[in-house]
Amino acid sequence: MTKRVPYKFVTKDALTYLTFNKWEQDEKMIHGFSTRYGGVSQGDLATLNLGFNRGDEEENVVENYRRISKALGVPFKSLVLSKQVHETQIARVNKEDCGNGIQTPNKWESMDGLYTNEKGVTLVTHYADCVPLFFYAPDYGMIGMAHAGWRGTVEEIGKKMVEIWFNKENIPLEAIQVVIGPSIGPCHFEVDADVADVFNAKFPNAAFIRYEHEKNKYRIDLWECNKQSLLGAGILEENITITGICTCCYDQIFFSHRKTGGKRGTLGAFMCLK
Prior knowledge:
CNF1/YfiH-like putative cysteine hydrolases, six-stranded mixed sheet, alpha+beta
């Protein structure tokens, strides 16, 4: 029997993005994860580059944001861009933050996670192999996203978001749903002992950290690392979805830092309450 994939590709006006089946029919929330398709950028950044730090023309990046905003059905002025430095800072944002990082200078030096309970505020985080974590508590009107690179994964930024929601926002753990989006998969996330040692200290004797003798390298499943961290934080297993798409395998669809040696654009993850 064919396993049903937990996502689908949506194309509007030649722009393609991903949605998650779990939330596709939700009338109170908009979400999406961009692909390479549908923008105006050129060369290694072709075409839907959403990173201002990739050497692209600023007007190209802004136009790309306008296009994906239109495709998703969110106002361009509602975007709130994060500031990702592979740490675990998380901010609660509101309508006063709209435009941050795109219409006004980014006010943060470090902000790898965003969340809000205000309607009409579109959260934006960025990727090119790192793990996107999407959080949603539909019964409590709360959304959030966290950028989990390998450092954010091992420092458990997902668990930190859960703890904030539970302790500060009074959201029950069983009410929180999480989707682990497209990122580099265990098939390609290969590291040396120095990085593996950090993971082994956090996840001792884990089957998802595997040593390969012939290469003297370690393969690590970042999806499973994040899942185990979320389970440890109290999230129910049935409320965690792993999309299972490797951005390195499918670099013709997604930007991949590792596959291109850094010659790439930037993907975007989006969430907004209606």
